[in-house]
Amino acid sequence: MAGCAINRGILEMPRTKASCNGFTLIELMVTIGIAAILGLLVVPNLVSMVDSGKTAVLVNKFPQDVAWARNQAVTTQQAVTMTLGANTCTWSTSVGGTTNAEHSMTAQQLTATYPNVTCAINGASSQTLTFTNQGFVNMSPTITVTAGQGQTWTLQVLASGSVILNANTAS
């Protein structure tokens, strides 16, 4: 630093009154090194939290779509079907034979939004839920949703057309 006096000894006085402000290269490198180490410790946890958050959104979307299908069956007085994909976390909702894209989950949506999620339907390859005009459903499948980091949720569709999340299995 130009204009900055450096003390070379105890008896030697600085030539100017200007003080040295700033950081040395070593101080800067130590600070960057500590920040890098802390970053390496935080990033894996952050990725895990993001994956779990995305999976939680998917876990909440399914009961909302089931509730919508149930309400459509009751209000329109016609059968509404939801076809659950073969262990793929996908579903297709149809009212009167017409698929409703807003209340369905395609494979493309799943891979784009929830890339590390897997699902298992209690032993079946795929199932079709049919809601009657009273809101009841023909079967009660259990679906296990697993996030990429191993976190699991278990959803069960009841005969009444409601979906429950088993709180003791959500981690």
Structure, explained:
- The chain contains 2 helices and 8 strands.
- The model is unreliable at 167-171 (pLDDT under 50).
- The strands form 2 sheets. It has a 4-stranded antiparallel β-sheet. Strands 4-6-7-8 form a 4-stranded antiparallel β-sheet, covered by helices on one side.
- It is α+β, with helices and mostly antiparallel strands and 171 residues long.
Assembly state (oligomeric): single chain
SSE pattern: HEEEHEEEEE
Mean pLDDT: 81
Q: What would you say the CATH architecture of the domain at 55-165 is? A: 3-Layer(bab) Sandwich
- State the share of residues found in helices, binned by percent: 25-40%
Question: Which CATH C-level class of the domain at 55-165 is it?
Answer: Alpha Beta
| Total strand segments | 8
The helix tally amounts to 2
CATH topology of the domain at 55-165: minor pseudopilin epsh fold
Question: What characterizes the major β-sheet?
Answer: 4 strands, antiparallel
Report the uncertain regions. 167-171
Question: What gyration radius follows from the Cα positions, in whole Å?
Answer: 29 Å
Identify the strand order in the major beta sheet. 3-2-1-5
Straight-line N-to-C gap: 57 Å
Give the CA-based shape: elongated
Query: Which structural category fits the helices and strands?
Result: alpha+beta
The fraction of residues assigned to DSSP E strands is 15-25%
